[in-house]
Every structure is written in C-alpha cells, then in structure tokens.
Design brief:
heterodimer; A: 111 residues; mainly beta; 5-stranded antiparallel sheet; B: mainly beta; 11 strands; 0% helix
Chain lengths: 111, 113
C-alpha cells in the first residue's frame, strides 16, 4: 500500500515570502505526482502536476521532482494571503487506478 | 465543461441509520472514487471503480459499501451509520490510468448524531 508523506504539517510565511512544501512517496514505481490546493470549505483543485525529473514553473509556482528519491516539492514565491490553504500531494502509478493522497500542509500567509 | 456533482451537499443522520451519498459525472470518465476527509486533514480512499457494475476497496472500506450502476453514477452507502463516520466525503472522476488529474465534486458534509 503506497503511502504519501507531506511536510511540514503547517507553515506560516509572511506576505511576499517564499513557501516550500515537501512530498515523498513510499512506492518506487510511482509515475505521477499532483499538487492540489484546497481552500477552507471548498473542494480540492489541481494546482500543478509533474511526471518527469526536473522542474516545472507556472507563474509564482514551481514544482520539482526527483524520481530517484521519490520526492517532489512545491515552491510558491511572492506568497499572497489568497495562497492560504491546505496543500495536498497525490501520487499514482501508470496502470494502477488507486490514487493516494498525503495528509496535507496547512499554509498560512501572514499579511 | 467537466463536472462532478454530489448530492446531498450536507446531511444529518442518526446512529444506526442508513445513508446513501450520490455522485454523478458528465465527463465520460471511466474511473470514479470516494474519499473521506476529516477536519483539516488529507483525503483517504474508501472505494473506487473503473467500470460500471464493479467496485474496488480502497484503504479504509470498513463500514462502507459502494455501487456503480452506470458509468456516470457512483454511490457510497453507509448501512449502519456511526459517530466515527462524521466527515466530509468527496467524489472524484478520472479519465484513465494516465497522467490526467482526478476532478473532484464539491463534497458532502455528513454529521452522524
């Protein structure tokens, strides 16, 4: 059974600062990682995806993947109060229907 | 536009009663999932399905049944609701075993009293 570990559990970042979130899978065959953002009282919405080693940037958001260490990280630069949310990491293998989520990182941006 | 619709959006149930949560997708997706979320925590997989009339157990299936009568519909059934099943339940759909991310419904908030 795949496990997905996220760290830290919670993070407080000043407005305009950089937030860094981590996620590691226990499954050596993991193929896909997705990062979701969930605002309070809302459903999770996919934010970023990464499938190959390296880095991917979309606006203020950058995601890294190191498949050898089964680790992905999400970085948010110039953090805004609207970035305050629960960030969930999900992982899956090609050909396997099960998608496992981590426990999440609660991010708070302090004005 | 792709959509996953859950009903009801909230429900209060009595301990020992039967609860059915419904999910409908218009995305022509093969895969559907039921997840449970406890306050401030991540998502745990209860049941999932990749074809009509077939369901699979997820990581926490005890106390839950699932039904997939058609490609579009997927239900979660609590035969004997318990206090510990108070949570928010999310349904999701996904095209296939590829890199497309699951799409979530708006959730059902269930309170068992």
């Amino acid at each position: 059974q795949q496990k997905v570990q996220q760290s830290p559990e919670s993070l407080i970042v000043p407005e305009g600062g950089m937030a860094s979130l981590n996620c590691t899978s226990s499954d050596r065959n993991v193929d896909y990682f997705w990062w979701y953002r969930q605002h309070s009282g809302k459903s999770p919405k996919m934010l970023m995806s990464i499938f190959s080693n390296g880095e991917k940037e979309e606006g203020r958001f950058t995601v890294h993947l190191n498949k050898a260490s089964l680790h992905t990280s999400l970085h948010i630069r110039d953090s805004q109060p609207s970035d305050s949310a629960l960030y969930l990491c999900a992982a899956a293998n090609y050909g396997n229907e099960k998608i496992t989520f981590g426990a999440g990182t609660k991010l708070t941006i302090k004005p | 536009e792709a959509a996953v619709t859950q009903s009801p959006r909230s429900k209060v149930a009595v301990t020992g009663g039967k609860v059915t949560l419904s999910c409908h997708q218009t995305n022509n997706h093969d895969y559907m999932y039921w997840y449970r979320q406890d306050t401030g925590h991540g998502l745990r997989l209860i049941h999932y399905s990749y074809v009509a009339d077939s369901t699979e157990k997820g990581d926490i299936p005890d106390g839950y049944k699932a039904s997939r009568p058609s490609q579009e519909n997927f239900s979660l059934i609590l035969e004997l609701a318990s206090l510990s099943q108070t949570a928010v339940y999310f349904c999701a759909s996904k095209r296939g075993t590829d890199n497309q991310a699951p799409l979530f419904g708006e959730g059902t908030r269930l309170s068992v009293l």
